[in-house]
Design brief:
- The chain has 12 helices and 9 strands.
- By secondary structure, the chain is α/β, with parallel strands linked by helices.
- The strands form 3 sheets. The protein has a 4-stranded parallel β-sheet with strand order 4-5-8-9, with helices on both faces. The protein has a 3-stranded parallel β-sheet with strand order 2-1-3, with helices on both faces.
- The protein is globular.
- The N and C termini lie far apart (64 Å).
């Protein structure tokens, strides 16, 4: 049986609100030529708008029905570094940062830079700090009901996290805007429902999101809690950037900063997002994009916080 090989190649150099990139169009041409030489039918999309891209992806997916092989490539300057082989920016968020920084340490040749957003450092200490600060904040607000719930939910380095803490934790954080995002008030309305409504994912993929969270929690949660990442990862061979929200109680700002100061890297930038909680890339996207474009791609630290 002969194989039908198809590829959708996307090269976007122009993005609203930023200067035009130099390479994506040429990269797309080069990739398409190589794919065609290897027997692929390559369809190119250059500088397409979101609507055009959505239509192209839908046509491409429909065209794959009955085909054995297909794929899409987006040669984009935010991913590709100035080397003969493609390198990528490794971004780890929350739990993903616990794994991401370790992957970056073990395989630096694969990455242009590492970004830790809501970077985990020593999560048990972060939970203890969050509990203490939440109690202080709710007492200052005079919210006696939440104070009682927190007082009945002990957290300590020795005893760990109580079941009561795990039940009240998200409610307490989201009630003050110090959880996943500043404006999120519950995981159901802020995460579950948006994922469920998103048309980019199939039903099985949406179910897999929550199955994956449950599975990873069973295997990783205790290790995430007890590990001091500064002891495990002392050096990166690639530039490192931490994107940390000033209002993040999920992963403590000061603990992340201490980890950053202990981390050795050829270039490193600590970037505080003063209007963000745990997800600066989504809460302050314009500032995040500017840091990506001006600092991360260029391996500079011009927009990072001043550090000792």
């Amino acid at each position: 049986m002969s194989r039908l090989l198809t590829a959708l190649v996307i090269g976007n150099a122009a993005y609203e609100g930023s200067s035009k990139l130099k390479n994506p169009g040429n990269d797309a041409d080069d990739v398409a030529v190589k794919l065609e030489a290897s027997g692929f039918e390559a369809v190119k999309m250059i500088d397409c708008a979101n609507a055009d891209l959505d239509r192209a992806l839908k046509r491409f997916k429909r065209g794959l029905v009955g085909n054995e092989y297909g794929g899409h490539l987006a040669p984009n300057s935010i991913h590709q570094a100035e080397s003969s082989s493609a390198q990528f920016v490794k971004l780890g968020h929350s739990w993903g940062s616990f794994l991401g920084i370790q992957v970056a340490a073990r395989a630096p040749d694969r990455f242009h830079a590492y970004i830790g957003m809501g970077q985990v450092s020593h999560q048990m200490r972060s939970e203890v700090a969050a509990h203490a600060q939440l109690l202080k904040d709710y007492r200052a607000r005079g919210d006696t009901a939440m104070v009682r719930r927190l007082e009945a939910a002990p957290v300590s380095l020795k005893e760990g996290l109580s079941d009561a803490w795990m039940r009240v934790r998200d409610d307490a954080m989201h009630g003050l805007g110090v959880g996943t995002t500043r404006d999120m008030r519950s995981v159901i309305t802020g995460v579950f429902l948006p994922v469920w409504r998103c048309r980019a994912y199939t039903l099985s993929e949406k179910i897999a999101v929550w199955r994956g969270m449950a599975w990873s929690g069973k295997f990783l949660w205790d290790e995430v809690l007890r590990t001091d990442l500064a002891d495990r990862v002392g050096r990166l061979e690639i530039p490192a950037y931490f994107f940390i929200g000033r209002h993040d109680y999920t992963t403590n700002h000061e603990l992340a900063r201490d980890f950053f100061l202990r981390l050795d890297a050829p270039v490193k930038g600590f970037c505080t997002f003063h209007n963000s909680a745990h997800s600066p890339l989504f809460e302050e996207p314009l500032r995040a994009r500017e840091i990506l474009r001006r600092d991360v791609l260029a391996q500079q630290v011009g927009l990072a916080d001043a550090t000792p």
